[in-house]
Amino acid sequence: MRALRKTAGGAGNLVLEWVPRPRPRPGWVVLDVRLAGICGTDLHIVADEFPNWPPVTLGHEFIGTINSLGEGVTGWAVGQRVVCEPHALACRRCHLCRRGLAHLCSEKRSPGWGIDGGFAEQVLVPADLLHSVPEGVDDVAAALVEPLSIVVTAFERTPVPLGGSVLVLGPGPIGILSALVALAAGAGQAALVGRPSSAGRLAFAAELGIEVWDSSGCDVPEAAYAWTCGRGVDLVVETSGGAIAEGIGALRRQGRMCVLGIPGADVIPVPWGLAMNRAADIAFSLSSSYSSWDAALAMLARGAIDPRPLASVFDLADWEQAFAATRERAVVKALLNPVASQNAIPTTSSTEATQ
Ligand SMILES: [Zn+2]
Ligand SMILES: [Zn+2]
After folding, report:
1. Are residue 154 and residue 140 in the same domain, yes or no?
2. pLDDT of residue 189 exceeding 50
3. Does 59 lie in the same domain as 153?
4. What is the total count of domains within the chain?
5. C-alpha distances in angstroms, 278 versus 106, 234, 238, 251, 254?
6. What is the CATH number of the domain that holds 57?
7. How far away, in angstroms, is 117 Cα from ligand 2 center?
8. Averaged over 193-205, what is the pLDDT?
9. What band does 160 get if pLDDT is binned at 50, 70 and 90?
10. CB 83 within 8 A of CB 130
11. Residue 86 alpha carbon to ligand 2 centre in Å
12. Are 66 and 29 in contact (CB under 8 A)?
């Protein structure tokens, strides 16, 4: 089968190659991948800025159907549509696993960087990480469950204030989804802030009904205080990795900030005195909890949010275009389709899949 693999360490070394199909093993299942999303993390893996164990097939966000069950797998059937938490090989024994925080286990090796992932026709995953996709949720929406779960996990840490104000910094997929979820979950007002370099994404978010601010034209804390009639923001969600200071400045006293963005450097300046003055509650959210996956699927099933407009589908054979479009921010979320010639999902490319 075809698989998009990082063949060696260092920057680059990404190759679409033929590999043997995975075989089911006890407790694991083989999925036929229908769609798999490219994430910012994948760009970091390609650049060798994120841990990875080559040679390895990339792709940690995918929807598939069950092709075959390993020995001892119960409760699942061939043909079922599923998504999969990427917390493979979590040890189940450490203090984090035993607290129910397997997504934070230091032993975990996710499909897509630790073990072979979903940028392939098939992927082998542990059955206990699967979630069934409800009938009314189509493949494109289901392919976005992983980033949606990242957002839901953040709101598990810092709940959306009912009727309150939520300011989201950074208009990438996680930022746009954060604003949509905040509105769906009962925020009184929500706005999304971005730089002029993200003008396209801001315009796109505005089309989805989200209030957007171009940060080049305003002082974000000042604008946030004006926006909340001088109160300051109840909850800031920082998804850009580069706007910690603005976020703290925008908070009301004892307001909350949840940080999701990965900073460009290990050490960044933080206005500590201002955070103290704000009596701020600041949380950092990493990865996605077990509970967030079912919650994300339930929100999609009810139509509470519709993330499908974020997606652009590419044939797996056109992976270079898809990665370039992601890097250049020409698309919000690129999905790779490894079976483009075999199903009805429209692709953005006319290239035939080579079988
Ligand atoms: Zn991701
Ligand atoms: Zn563990």
Report:
1. no
2. yes
3. no
4. 2
5. 33, 11, 17, 7, 6
6. 3.90.180.10
7. 20
8. 93
9. very high
10. yes
11. 14
12. yes
